[in-house]
Predict the 3D structure of the following.
Amino acid sequence: MMNFSESGVVARPLTREQVREIYELPFPDLVFWAMRVHRAHHNPRYIQHCTLGNIKAGGCPEDCAYCPQSAHYKTGVRNEPMADVAMVIEQARAAKAAGSTRFCMGAAWRNPRNDEEFERVLEMIRAVRALGMEACVTLGMLTADQARRLKDAGLTAYNHNLDTSPEFYPEIISTHTYEERLETLRHVRAAGIEICSGGIIGMGESRADRIGLLCELANLDPYPESVPINALVPVEGTPLAGQPPIDAIEMVRTIATARIIMPRARVRLAAGRTRMTDEAQALCFLAGANSLFTGEKLLTTPNPGLSHDEQLLATLGMEKEPERVAAPSPFVPLVELDHNGHHGEARAVEARHTHQP
Ligand code: SAM
Ligand code: DTB
Ligand code: SF4
């Protein structure tokens, strides 16, 4: 077994065997380690809220077996023209008012063309940044030049998921390759944009595939700033419509492992929360998830809704992350024993928060 480190795994590249050893630890040891790592790099009370906007829905030429927006499947998602800038600004403004600090815009494209629609995306990015929010887009494959133009518009992060292991990828996606995904990520990195990359679990992959995905993500150099872990949302009409829900403990193991091997990343409990209990989501937060998509809708499918999430966080005594916070946990429980060896009062010692813009 590799050495235990409170700040997470530092020796890289990681082998699959090393990642498997972490993933398959006895659950109490896995979660305890993940909590230690989480606290060393983040304040575990805070959850970043992000909101999604679908700026170009449906009709995508790609064949991704999970995706309701692929033109290959009849799912009832309408193929819509690209959204106009004013409408998107309105959505971003509403998201900010509801407490989101990041607005993420998705387009159902294989890749952007260098046309008026791409210019419109640049305009949307500038507008979201002008609201003081982080801006993220996911537009499919990019050229180096497109990545630079996104950077110049002020883009904070680019979302491009590796989705699963390289071995399982061709079972799910037939119209582009893993290597093409990696190439886009290289262009994004070279342009100086943060990477948001994660995957989907519950597509019928094996545990070894989940471990393979985590290993690929952690070995990106540097690893992604943000890692969305989606549980499949099965959509009628797609080949994965009949997939049973992923076991919640498997979800927690995936998140805990991501936290340990990518200690500074934001780990986002992304799609699939409507099929998870509050208790399972709470376990995900303990295991190191510190970001959510909030609002009634993801891109095309339902999401729990803000009032449910606010209630859940209130029950847990947790809060929305007010701004980008890079601070370790301020909480150190002190339990004193009295002279008879009984537990005295537990005291919480608060250290100062250090907010970083
Ligand atoms: N076309 C772009 C691309 O594929 O990179 C961006 C949009 S795509 C909807 C973004 C991500 O959403 C996918 O990579 C996948 O991880 C996730 N996603 C799509 N459909 C999903 C589903 N039914 N359940 C869970 N995650 C899903
Ligand atoms: C990500 O990993 N999950 C988000 C975001 N990146 C773009 C999308 C989830 C989509 C779920 C299916 C839908 O609503 O269409
Ligand atoms: Fe869906 Fe993106 Fe695949 Fe298109 S490329 S089918 S939008 S996941």
Observations:
- Residues 27-41 form the longest helix (15 residues).
- The domain at 16-350 is CATH 3.20.20.70 (TIM Barrel).
- Residues 66-69, 106, 108-109, 138, 140, 160-161, 163, 200, 230, 232-233, 235, 271, 299 surround S-adenosylmethionine (ligand 1) (CB under 6 Å).
